[in-house]
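Form 7-S
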Amino acid sequence: MKEPVLHDLLRCPESHERLLPVTGKWVQRLNKQIAAGELQTQKGEHVTSPVDDGLITADDRYLYPVRNGLVNMFIADRIVLKK
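Output:
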């Protein structure tokens, strides 16, 4: 039996849907958008710190950022990708 990977266990705290890991290309694109000041958190603050990785909702609307190896699962801090 295969051991579950952490992202297989984590769910969106709001919708409880499965979260998917982002690819390296996603991270590069997100960090360009962050540097350009184009992304905001759920609470409406501009995202200023680049992400190392992330977990995205299945509908590609929200990203829970990973920085320094820790995923931030607070709804208010998630990054809004689509409105």
